[in-house]
């Protein structure tokens, strides 16, 4: 029986390994992590991440051919193929701080593999890493290995999207495997291809050299994020001219060269990957002397920051230029619907912006705990992607006072001056907005950062409504634009 071990039981390691185990009953898969609480959660009834369909997949093969363990070393020693799916956050200090990928977790995983491996291993980069990381990993492994133990490094970046991870894994657009162009390298590529070929059609399994595979992941995320920043930039122009961004996106997306997906304007992209991977790409370009290319990609992140700031300014300027002491209901905190993941969610910057203007926030998200929200509002930028157990953070008194986290949107709306929709959860579409309106201070505002609700219906109730990129209410049209500071 082939044995697979995956280091890192996170949003990628957990679901991807569960899918391999589910599709390949003849393979034993063990997912290991240094975080004991995370492993305990994977072994419990309440999995550590929320992902539609994940429960069924995990529960159908857990303790049959899928195992979760914190006994990292022994499972590494036992396995033929080792996936490394640890976090690769943005560096917070030193050379490249704020841009370069922090490979501390990756390096320590590689050193551990070298330390405990007594037989040949295929080591698979599942994490998103800078191009040429495989070369560094090879050096670490080969300089620290026992005599006679050989390693083959493969790059097999993950393209799943949170919220649809299980569908993406069951029916991927493509699986990408990069390896060395040597007979041993190609043998390793074939071995990994054999695993995926159990359920993925062969023509969707792409094999390339190592560097193409590593760079393709960064390129894919950069181009996806660029699409969002492009439509978000258009949304600002739509608001200024009276065009409707949904109509523009529809018309543009009908062009088969462009296509309709990923053209929804919003308060900005979030998630653990887009910003981090683009900044990493910017850094790699700079290191290669490609200043213009670096500046081009940096602009994608800058437009994203602009979009969040623009949203905050719109809220404050609409509410008589001050939200001080005003209660604002924040609907949604996760970076998108169908996930509880809050990493780099635009809600953080918007909430911090409103708190900066002394608003009182009441936050509701169906999948995000109070503890997580408080942590997110008090953790410094870029620290969030370091494992939580390594970055202690305690809510400040200020955040305790100014922020309440609620499980009842109707209760939370009582006495609120405004509502900010930060996540497009389906349930927000079917709330009883008349009931909400009745309990609010007047004038009552809705600022829809996701174009999740029908502005015309809300206007009929009496709300003053702002929807990203849509024609503005007369109320907002006449207001001077707040400066973007
Ligand atoms: P995560 O933070 O959810 O999981 C990483 C896990 O690795 C943590 O549980 C951490 O405790 C563990 N870990 C760190 N160092 C370790 C070590 N030395 N030994 C054992 N465990 C260790 O991160 P996530 O979201 O799963 O991302 C992992 C990688 O996959 C990142 O490089 C990310 O960029 C990439 N990726 C993420 C996607 C996503 O949607 N979240 C999609 C595609 C790629």
Automatic annotation (TrEMBL):
One Pfam family this sequence matches: UDPG_MGDP_dh
Domain of life: Eukaryota
SMART domains per the UniProt record, alphabetical: UDPG_MGDP_dh_C (SM00984)
Pathway involvement of the protein, from the record: Nucleotide-sugar biosynthesis; UDP-alpha-D-glucuronate biosynthesis; UDP-alpha-D-glucuronate from UDP-alpha-D-glucose: step 1/1
Alphabetical GO biological process terms: glycosaminoglycan biosynthetic process; UDP-glucuronate biosynthetic process
Keywords of this entry: NAD, Oxidoreductase
GO cellular component, one term: nucleus
InterPro entries: 6-PGluconate_DH-like_C_sf, NAD(P)-bd_dom_sf, UDP-Glc/GDP-Man, UDP-Glc/GDP-Man_DH_C, UDP-Glc/GDP-Man_DH_C_sf, UDP-Glc/GDP-Man_DH_dimer, UDP-Glc/GDP-Man_DH_N, UDPglc_DH_euk
Coiled-coil residues: none
Residue intervals of the UDP-glucose/GDP-mannose dehydrogenase C-terminal domain: 329-455
EC number: 1.1.1.22
List of residues binding NAD(+): 8-13, 33, 38, 86-90, 127-128, 162, 273-276, 343
GO molecular function: NAD binding; UDP-glucose 6-dehydrogenase activity
Catalytic activities: UDP-alpha-D-glucose + 2 NAD(+) + H2O = UDP-alpha-D-glucuronate + 2 NADH + 3 H(+)
Residues at the catalytic site: 273 (nucleophile)
Family: Belongs to the UDP-glucose/GDP-mannose dehydrogenase family.
NCBIfam families: NDP-sugDHase
Full protein name: UDP-glucose 6-dehydrogenase
UniProt lineage: Eukaryota, Viridiplantae, Streptophyta, Embryophyta, Tracheophyta
């Amino acid at each position: 029986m082939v044995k697979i071990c995956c280091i890192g039981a996170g949003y990628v390691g957990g679901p991807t390994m569960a899918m391999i185990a589910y599709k390949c009953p003849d393979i034993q898969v063990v997912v290991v992590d240094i975080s004991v609480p995370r492993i305990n959660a994977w072994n419990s009834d309440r999995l550590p991440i929320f992902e539609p369909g994940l429960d069924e997949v995990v529960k159908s093969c857990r303790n049959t051919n899928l195992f979760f363990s914190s006994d990292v070393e022994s499972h590494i020693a036992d396995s033929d193929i080792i996936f490394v799916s640890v976090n690769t956050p943005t560096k917070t200090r030193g050379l490249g701080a704020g841009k370069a990928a922090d490979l501390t977790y990756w390096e320590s995983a590689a050193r551990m593999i070298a330390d405990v491996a007594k037989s040949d291993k295929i080591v698979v980069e599942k994490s998103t890493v800078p191009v040429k990381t495989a070369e560094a990993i090879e050096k670490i492994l080969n300089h620290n290995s026992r005599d006679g133990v050989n390693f083959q490094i493969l790059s097999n970046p993950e393209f799943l999207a949170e919220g649809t991870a299980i569908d993406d894994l069951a029916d991927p657009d493509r699986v990408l495997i990069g390896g060395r162009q040597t007979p041993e390298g190609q043998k390793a590529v074939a071995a990994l291809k054999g695993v995926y070929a159990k359920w993925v059609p062969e023509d969707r399994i792409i094999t390339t050299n190592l560097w193409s595979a590593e760079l393709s992941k960064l390129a894919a995320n950069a181009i996806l994020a660029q699409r969002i920043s492009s439509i978000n930039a258009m949304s600002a122009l739509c608001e200024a001219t009276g065009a409707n961004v949904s109509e523009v996106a529809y018309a543009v997306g009908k062009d088969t060269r462009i296509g309709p997906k990923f053209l929804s304007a919003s308060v900005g992209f979030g998630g653990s990957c887009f910003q981090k991977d683009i900044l990493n790409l910017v850094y790699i370009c700079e290191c290669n002397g490609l200043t213009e290319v670096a500046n081009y990609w940096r602009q994608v992140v800058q437009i994203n920051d602009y979009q969040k700031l623009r949203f905050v300014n719109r809220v404050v300027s609409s509410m008589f230029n001050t939200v001080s002491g005003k209660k604002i209901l924040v609907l949604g905190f996760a970076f998108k619907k169908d996930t509880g993941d809050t990493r780099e969610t635009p809600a953080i910057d918007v909430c911090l912006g409103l708190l900066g203007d002394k608003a009182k926030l009441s936050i509701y998200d169906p999948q995000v705990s109070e503890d997580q929200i408080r942590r997110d509002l008090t953790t410094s930028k870029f620290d969030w992607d370091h494992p939580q157990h390594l970055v202690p953070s305690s809510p400040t008194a200020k955040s305790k006072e100014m922020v309440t986290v609620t499980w009842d949107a109707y209760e939370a709306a009582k006495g609120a001056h405004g509502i900010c929709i930060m996540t497009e959860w389906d349930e927000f579409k079917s709330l009883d907005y008349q009931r909400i309106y009745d309990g609010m201070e007047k004038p009552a505002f809705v600022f829809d950062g996701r174009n999740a609700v029908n502005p015309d219906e809300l206007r009929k109730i009496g709300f003053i409504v702002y929807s990203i990129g849509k024609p503005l209410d007369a109320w907002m049209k006449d207001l001077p634009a707040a400066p973007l500071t």
